[in-house]
Write a structure and sequence with these properties.
Length: about 230
Amino acid sequence: MTVNECPFADIEAAATALAADLATTLRTAIDARGSAVLAVSGGRTPAHVFQRLRDEPLDWGRVTVTLIDERWVPPTHADSNEKLVRDHLLQGLAAKATFIPLYGGEASPMAGQPACEARLAKLAQIDAAYLGMGPDGHFASLFPGDAALDVRDGCCVAVPETPQRVARMSLTAPLICAARHLCLLYAGDDKHEVYQQARQPGDYHELPLRLLFDHAQGPVEVLRVA
């Protein structure tokens, strides 16, 4: 596993570089296998990336997009990652891409997991996964100490509600780590300190990001905004 670290002065520069990197990976996959799979994160930063990626000259009709994780809310909800992707990525040229949602309308992610698993099982290996990280070292919806960190079977795992967060659905760690190309984008000194800790040996239950670096099967591009 190779880790390439790239510092950037601002989010615009990082987003431009990441969009170009993701486009190159998707283009390579289409040339090699006739199709490509992209998994993306939600949050505040991805909109910058999506608005650049959607204008990349790709054969978007051969691209399938899904989510790294999703809050269990309808796609009309302001906190929905699906809404973020539809509003900022699946526009213009990229509107031709196929989108596979995690949220299915069921009462809970536990109830919705079988159907979500069936949707994701139709996908091939993820070609490009775009990840963020939390200040506690979580990625996707794999949080410190949660049982979801240890799920090794299947494509998705239901993450129950807690007093601190709404219920969610997440891709499993093995599915994410098996991506042909992984990209991690984060900003700020506090997250950089967490990142540096995650690069050191230790328990991934304390810092889930360690799981990514321990088990990633492809190269990991780390883009840091100082």
